[in-house]
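Notes to self after the call with IL:
- keep both proteins in one doc
- input above output, always
- annotate only the second one for now

Protein 1:
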Amino acid sequence: MASQAPVRKWVGKSIRRVEDPRFLLGRGGYVDDILLPGMVHAAVLRSPLPHARIQSIDVSKAKSLPGVLAVVTGKEVTQLTNPMPDFGPDPAKHTWWLLAVDKVRYVGEPVAAVVATDRYVAEDACELIEVEYEPLPPVVDPEEAMKPGAPLVHEALGSNVAYSRTFVFGDVERDFAEAEVVVRDRLRWHRSGAQPLETVGAVWQYNPATGMMTIYCNSVTFTYLLFLVANTLKIPSNKLDMVPCPAGGSFGSKFWAVRVPILAGMLAKLVGR
């Protein structure tokens, strides 16, 4: 009679990892490692102001720089793409574009994008773009932002409140009245954000003959991202092939990282690369 095989138990065991060698040997294949034939590079000009209206943008000097293939501002974006998906308050009133169109709402908001033969030329061209701003009062304190007459970040929404809801469980007034001790306090939650070592990145390859587009991206959500990207770029989803790349950290920051891959796709299609 054959002996019964022992039951394998995994709890408390040291499991040998099989996914580490390629990363330890520098063969991870991150977005920055991808090199394609004829690849060009993009750079983004960002707002230095927290709140301002865009009076004018002069890109003539940037376009004349040798090696520059295209310069795009918010006005061109409204013709080349649909608004990005917006799950904020009242999406019907609020449009979220790849580049700022009439107004900037935070320091670092993308204002213009440059495509050039290499990264250095693209960044040099960004410095040649002249933007005239009309500064507006910044909105930096949440309580001040809710007061009547406060500057509005999004005028179309008519409020700076993104979401508000009050939760009530049980007879609150009675329970407080009958409590032996009532503790009152004021709590503040500081701003926080995920800061992985690797930032969001994307590499696109466009085939003008077939209309097929391949995207190499370090987003951590690919299924729904494919359809969001396709809709924003006005292309059928079956014309888009998404290749996942390892993410060098995320902490949630690459779950909804849609702007970078969509912007890169728009520029790739624009220059036919």
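Protein 2 (the one to annotate):
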Amino acid sequence: MSNAINVVAISGGLQRPSRTLALTDAIVAALGAALPIETRLIELGEIGGRLAGALTRAQVPAELEAQIRAIETADALVVASPVYRASYTGLFKHLFDLVHHEALIDVPVLLAATGGSERHALVIGHQLRPLFSFFQARTLPIGVYASESDFDQYQITNPALRARIALAVDRAVPQLRRHALSVAAA
């Protein structure tokens, strides 16, 4: 798949099973159905203990350095975090504190979040979008928010959420293609 778009998906859930991971997987599956992609999944729940001990990039263990480099060299990102205390998790922020500040310039980023109720839905616009604006990433216009009621046993059951994922992916695909072409031409 030489023309595949390199998508790195970051699931900020700290436990497994996780609604955040289920949402991330659903978005990535929809992207994969729409265009050729190669995906790398980074689960914060799996790397959290080692990541938390690295206060600077120089302290990052080699296996985590590879994860950070994957983020920095991705053609596109799918990022999802559960909402804790009205924002993304501290560990999610710590991961991106270690990403080089110029690595994500113009990289398309599809934003997603999960929370206990709809009252946290603004986290995408008020927390995630500003974080990736700092990196000068190209946050895609439609994010995906899911609440606890959208799932049963960590499986998406709400047709409206599936429709939102489909819409976000439909709108993302042309931008991902354009970005991949511009990177290939450079």
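Annotation: The mean pLDDT is 95. The chain has one domain: 5-185.
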